[in-house]
C-alpha cells in the first residue's frame, strides 16, 4: 500500500499538523435512498454498532453523485468519503448505478493521480437487506482513514 | 504541410456564392511566424488566411454560441479539431447545415520553439473525421483499437510514489491564477454558466486561492472526461503554463483501458464514455 | 532634494542584491514553468532579478493580492462576531528586486484610484513599506510600447532605486526617492563608488537612447487618445475583438487592472470574506441582480477595456491606465494586442 507522507502534504498556509491524540476522522457517506440508505437504517434497527464518524447524505440514486461532491467534500472538512449504491442490476432506476460505476472509477483514479491515497474515497454496493454489511463497510472505511490521519492536501485555506 | 492557397480559394468561392457569413481560419500575427485565429466577414480579408504547421489553435472554439451565433460558418479543422466538432454536433450545439468544413489531413503542428507538439507526436487521428472538403492525403488510422498509447508524461507520473505526485501537483495548482483561459479556449466547454467561472460560482470557491484552483481544475477535467480530444488549446492558453494535459490524459487512459469505447469524437453520433455503460465494466474496486 | 548615484560592476551589483536579500524581506523573480513570478526569496541563487521581461509577471499581486482575506466571522448563539483577519502578509517592510519599469509605473497609476473616493489603507501601507529596485531594460521586447505613452521613461521616478547598465560593463545605481536613498546608503556603499550626477548623466542618456530606439511598436499617443475619445460607436470594435475568447487573463496579468470581486467562503460556523481579481472581459462582469447585462456581447466588453485603458482613466485621473508593457498580449490565448486594437480603432476615426 502506498504510503502517504503526512509531513509533505500541507495545506497552503499552515504547516502539516500531526493528528492530535483525540482526533476523530470526519467521513462523508453518500448513500442512495433505495438500497444503501435503507440498508443503513436496517443496521440501526438491528442494533448493530458501527463507528459514529460517518455523516450520511441521502441521494435518490448513486448516479446522482457528481464527482464534484467528492472533490468538494475533500476540500472542506472531510477526511474521507464513502459512496454507496444498489448492486448492479438492482438499481431502483434500472441503470443509474451502471453509469455511476464508470464515473466512480475515473474519479477514484484521478484523485489518486493528483496525490490522494486511494483509501480516501471508497465505494460499496449495499442493498436494503444488508444491514451487517453496511456496518462492516463503515468500520473498514473508518479504520482506513484513521490509519491515514487527517487530510491536509488541497484543503480550503484555513480560517 | 501548406494549404494556404487552397483555403484562400475555398473561402473566396464560399463568399462569392453567398454560402457563408463568416470564415474562421488562421492569420499570421504580423510580428513573428506564429498564427492566431481570424474570423473573416469581409471577402476582401480572405488573402489574410494562411495554413501550415504553425496553425495550432483549435478553431472549433469559435463555434460556441457567443462567437458565431446564428451565422453560417466556414471553418478549417485538423484531425483533433474535427473530433471536437463531431462532439459539438452530437451534443446538438451546432447545426451541420450551417457549416462548411474544410478538413485537413494534419501532419502535426509545432510550438513556438519549432518543435512538434507532444499531442501531435502521439496523435492517432490526424485526418479530419468530418468535412465538406478534405485537403491532403489521408494517413494513419482512424480507428483506435489496438493503437492507443498512454501519454508519456502520465506514464512517468504513474511510476512516482504518491507523496511525490502530491507534492508536484500541489506546486502545479499553486500556479493557477483562476483566469479561466483554459475553459474559454476549450471547444467543448460551451456552458454559458460555467460552474468553475467564479462569476457564476455559487457552488464553487469564488476566491483565487490555490485550493480553489485544485477544486476547479479537477472538476473541469471530470466534466471533460470522455470528451477531451487533446487539442491542447487549454494548455497553450494557460498564462502559467500549467501542464493541464496530464489531468485529461489520465482520465482518457482510465476510460480507454477499462471501458471499450472509441476515443472522443471519432465516430459521428458517439457521445462519449459517460453516456453509456456496459454490464462488464470493472467492479472490483467497489466493496 | 538630490539623491545619490553610485557606479559599480556586475559583481558589485550581485553583492548589492545579495546583501539586500540577507538583510531585508525580499521579493524577486523566481522561475516556475517558464514564467517568472515575484515571490519571497531567501537567497540570491533562487531568483533572477534580470529576468526577461516577456516572461516576467507583474509586481501588482504584492500590492493587490490575487485573493486577500478582508474579514472573518463566527456565528455564535449570541449572534455573529465579525473580526479583522490576521496580520496582512504583505504589510511588512520589504524590498522588491528586478521590478520592471512598466510595473513600477503601473503602481504609480494605481495609486490614483486607491486614493480617490475610498482610501485603501491596506494598499497604502504596502506601498509605504516597500522599496522597489528596478533595472531599466536594455532593449524592448516584441510587445513593449512604454515609450509611446504619456510619461517620461527616461526620468521615471516610480521606482526607489534605478539600476542602469552603462557602457564598459559599468552599472549605475540611482536613488530616486528617500526610501531608495536610505537603501543605497545602507547597503551599497561597500560595493560601489559614489559618483556625481553630471558625471553619470552621459552614460545614462546613452543607454536610454539605445533602449528607446529598440522599439518595434511606436504610437502617436496624443492622436490615439484624442481619436478614441470620440469613437464610441465605431463598428471597428467588433472587428478587432472577434477572436477574443472572453477569459480573464489580460486583466489578471495587467500591472494596472484593479477590478475585484468579493466572495464569502464558509466552513460550518465560521467564514472568511475574500477580495479577489475580477475582469471586465468576462461575460458576467456586468450581470445585475434581475438578469440585465449591459455588456452581453464581446465587442462591448472590449470597447470598455480599450477605452478605460486609453481614455476614461486619463480623463478622470490624468494618467493613461495602460503602461505599454505588453503582458496582456503575451498572456492572451490568441495574442490580441491592445496596441493594435487602439491603433486600428483610432485609424477609423474621421
Give structural attributes.
heterotrimer, A: 159 residues, alpha/beta, Rossmann fold, four-stranded parallel β-sheet, 14% strand, disordered N terminus, B: 287 residues, 2 domains, five-stranded mixed β-sheet, 9% strand
Topology, pairings included?
The complex is a heterotrimer of chains A (159), B (287) and C (350).
Chain A lengths: L26 E6 H13 L8 E6 L7 H9 L4 E6 L10 H19 L6 E5 L5 H18 L11
Parallel strand pairs in A: 1-2, 1-3, 3-4
Helix pairs in contact in A: 1-4
Chain B lengths: L3 H13 L5 E7 L6 E6 L24 H4 L4 E5 L1 H12 L8 E6 L13 H4 L11 E3 L16 H8 L2 H13 L6 H5 L24 H15 L8 H5 L7 H14 L29
Parallel strand pairs in B: 1-3, 3-4, 4-5
Antiparallel strand pairs in B: 1-2
Chain C lengths: L4 E4 L1 H14 L1 E8 L2 E7 L25 E10 L2 E5 L10 E6 L1 H13 L7 H8 L1 E6 L25 E5 L5 E5 L2 H10 L5 E3 L1 H16 L8 H8 L7 H5 L8 H5 L6 E8 L2 E8 L20 H20 L9 H5 L6 H10 L3
Parallel strand pairs in C: 2-6, 6-7, 7-8
Antiparallel strand pairs in C: 1-9, 1-10, 2-3, 4-5, 4-12, 8-9, 11-12
Question: How would you portray this structure in words?
Answer:
The complex is a heterotrimer of chains A (159), B (287) and C (350). By secondary structure, chain A is an alpha/beta fold. Chain A has a single domain, classed as Rossmann fold (3-Layer(aba) Sandwich), CATH 3.40.50. In chain A, 37% of the residues lie in helices and 14% in strands. Chain A is built from four helices and four strands; from the N terminus they run βαβαβαβα. Chain A has helices at residues 33-45, 67-75, 96-114, 131-148, and strands at residues 27-32, 54-59, 80-85, 121-125. Chain A has a four-stranded parallel beta sheet, sandwiched between helices. In chain A, strand 1, helix 1 and strand 2 (54-59) form a beta-alpha-beta unit. In chain A, helix 1 packs across helix 4 (131-148). Chain B is an alpha/beta fold and 287 residues long. Chain B has two domains: 4-135, no CATH class; 152-275, no CATH class. Chain B has ten helices and five strands, in the order H-E-E-H-E-H-E-H-E-H-H-H-H-H-H. Chain B has a five-stranded mixed beta sheet. In chain B, helix 3 links the parallel strand 3 (73-77) and strand 4 (99-104). With 350 residues, chain C is an alpha+beta fold. Chain C has two domains: 5-69 and 86-212, no CATH class; 221-263 and 277-347, no CATH class. Chain C contains eleven helices and twelve strands. Chain C has helices at 10-23, 101-113, 121-128, 178-187, 197-212, 221-228, 236-240, 249-253, 298-317, 327-331, 338-347, and strands spanning 5-8, 25-32, 35-41, 67-76, 79-83, 94-99, 130-135, 161-165, 171-175, 193-195, 260-267, 270-277. Chain C has an eight-stranded mixed beta sheet, sandwiched between helices. In chain C, strands 5-4-12-11 form a four-stranded antiparallel beta sheet, with no helix packed on it. Chain C is globular. Chain C starts with a strand and ends with a helix.
Amino acid at each position: 500500500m502506498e504510503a502517504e507522507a503526512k509531513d509533505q502534504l500541507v495545506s497552503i498556509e499552515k504547516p502539516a499538523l500531526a493528528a492530535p491524540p483525540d482526533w476523530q476522522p470526519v467521513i462523508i457517506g453518500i448513500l442512495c435512498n433505495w438500497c444503501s440508505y435503507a440498508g443503513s437504517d436496517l443496521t440501526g434497527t438491528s442494533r448493530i454498532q458501527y463507528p459514529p464518524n460517518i455523516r450520511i447524505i441521502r441521494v435518490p440514486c448513486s448516479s446522482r453523485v457528481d464527482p464534484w461532491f467528492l472533490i468538494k467534500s475533500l476540500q472542506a472538512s472531510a477526511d474521507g468519503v464513502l459512496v454507496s449504491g444498489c448492486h448492479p442490476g438492482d438499481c431502483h432506476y434500472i441503470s443509474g448505478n451502471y453509469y455511476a460505476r464508470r464515473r466512480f472509477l475515473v474519479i477514484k483514479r484521478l484523485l489518486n493521480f493528483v496525490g490522494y491515497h486511494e483509501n480516501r474515497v471508497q465505494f460499496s454496493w449495499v442493498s436494503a437487506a444488508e444491514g451487517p454489511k453496511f456496518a462492516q463497510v463503515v468500520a473498514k472505511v473508518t479504520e482506513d482513514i484513521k490509519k491515514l490521519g487527517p487530510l491536509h492536501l488541497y484543503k480550503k485555506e484555513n480560517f | 504541410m501548406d494549404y494556404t492557397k487552397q483555403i484562400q480559394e475555398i473561402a473566396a468561392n464560399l463568399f462569392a456564392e453567398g454560402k457563408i457569413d463568416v470564415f474562421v481560419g488562421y492569420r499570421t500575427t504580423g510580428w513573428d511566424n506564429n498564427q492566431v485565429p481570424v474570423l473573416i466577414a469581409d471577402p476582401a480579408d480572405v488573402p489574410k488566411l494562411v495554413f501550415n504547421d504553425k496553425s495550432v489553435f483549435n478553431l472549433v472554439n469559435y463555434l460556441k454560441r457567443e462567437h458565431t451565433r446564428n451565422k453560417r460558418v466556414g471553418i478549417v479543422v485538423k484531425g483533433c479539431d474535427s473530433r471536437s466538432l463531431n462532439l459539438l454536433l452530437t451534443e446538438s450545439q451546432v447545426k451541420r447545415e450551417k457549416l462548411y468544413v474544410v478538413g485537413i489531413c494534419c501532419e502535426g503542428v509545432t510550438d513556438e520553439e519549432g518543435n512538434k507538439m507532444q499531442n501531435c507526436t502521439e496523435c492517432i487521428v490526424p485526418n479530419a473525421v468530418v468535412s465538406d472538403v478534405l485537403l491532403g492525403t489521408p494517413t494513419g488510422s482512424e480507428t483506435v483499437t489496438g493503437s492507443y498509447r498512454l501519454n508519456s508524461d502520465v506514464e512517468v507520473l504513474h511510476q512516482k510514489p504518491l507523496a511525490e505526485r502530491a507534492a508536484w501537483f500541489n506546486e502545479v495548482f499553486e500556479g493557477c491564477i483562476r483566469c479561466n483561459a483554459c475553459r474559454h479556449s476549450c471547444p467543448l466547454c460551451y456552458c454559458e454558466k460555467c460552474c468553475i467561472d467564479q462569476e457564476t460560482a455559487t457552488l464553487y470557491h469564488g476566491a483565487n486561492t490555490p485550493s480553489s484552483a485544485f477544486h476547479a481544475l479537477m472538476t473541469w477535467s471530470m466534466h471533460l472526461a470522455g470528451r477531451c480530444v487533446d487539442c491542447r488549446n487549454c494548455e497553450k492558453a494557460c498564462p502559467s503554463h500549467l501542464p493541464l494535459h496530464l489531468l485529461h490524459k489520465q482520465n482518457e487512459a482510465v476510460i480507454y483501458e477499462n471501458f471499450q469505447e472509441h476515443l472522443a469524437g471519432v465516430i459521428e453520433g458517439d457521445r462519449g464514455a459517460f453516456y453509456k455503460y456496459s454490464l462488464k465494466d470493472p467492479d472490483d474496486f467497489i466493496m | 532634494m538630490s539623491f545619490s548615484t553610485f557606479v559599480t560592476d556586475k559583481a558589485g551589483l550581485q553583492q548589492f542584491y545579495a546583501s539586500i536579500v540577507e538583510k531585508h524581506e525580499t521579493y524577486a523573480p523566481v522561475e516556475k514553468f517558464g514564467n517568472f513570478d515575484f515571490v519571497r526569496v531567501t537567497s540570491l541563487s533562487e531568483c533572477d532579478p534580470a529576468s526577461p521581461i516577456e516572461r516576467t509577471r507583474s509586481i501588482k499581486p504584492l500590492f493587490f493580492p490575487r485573493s486577500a482575506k478582508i474579514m472573518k466571522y463566527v456565528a455564535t448563539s449570541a449572534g455573529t462576531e465579525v473580526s479583522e483577519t490576521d496580520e496582512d502578509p504583505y504589510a511588512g517592510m520589504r524590498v522588491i528586486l528586478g521590478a520592471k519599469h512598466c510595473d513600477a509605473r503601473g503602481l504609480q497609476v494605481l495609486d490614483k484610484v486607491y486614493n480617490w473616493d475610498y482610501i485603501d489603507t491596506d494598499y497604502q501601507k504596502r506601498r509605504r513599506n516597500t522599496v522597489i529596485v528596478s533595472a531599466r531594460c536594455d532593449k524592448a521586447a516584441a510587445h513593449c510600447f512604454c515609450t509611446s505613452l504619456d510619461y517620461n521613461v527616461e526620468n521615471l521616478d516610480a521606482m526607489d532605486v534605478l539600476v542602469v547598465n552603462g557602457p564598459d560593463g559599468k552599472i549605475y545605481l540611482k536613488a530616486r526617492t528617500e526610501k531608495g536613498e536610505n537603501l543605497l546608503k545602507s547597503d551599497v556603499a561597500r560595493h560601489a563608488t559614489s559618483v556625481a550626477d553630471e558625471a553619470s548623466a552621459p552614460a545614462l542618456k546613452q543607454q536610454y537612447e539605445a533602449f528607446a530606439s529598440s522599439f518595434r511598436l511606436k504610437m502617436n499617443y496624443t492622436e490615439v487618445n484624442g481619436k478614441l475619445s470620440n469613437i464610441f460607436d465605431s463598428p471597428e470594435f467588433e472587428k478587432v475583438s472577434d477572436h477574443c475568447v472572453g477569459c480573464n487573463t489580460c486583466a489578471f496579468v495587467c500591472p494596472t487592472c484593479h477590478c475585484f470581486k468579493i466572495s464569502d467562503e464558509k466552513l460550518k460556523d465560521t467564514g472568511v470574506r475574500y477580495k479577489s481579481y475580477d475582469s471586465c472581459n468576462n461575460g458576467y462582469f456586468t450581470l445585475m441582480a434581475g438578469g440585465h447585462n449591459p455588456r452581453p456581447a464581446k465587442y462591448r466588453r472590449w470597447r470598455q477595456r480599450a477605452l478605460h485603458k486609453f481614455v476614461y482613466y486619463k480623463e478622470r485621473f490624468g494618467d493613461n491606465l495602460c503602461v505599454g508593457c505588453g503582458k496582456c498580449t503575451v498572456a492572451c490565448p490568441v495574442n490580441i494586442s491592445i496596441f493594435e486594437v487602439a491603433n486600428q480603432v483610432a485609424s477609423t476615426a474621421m
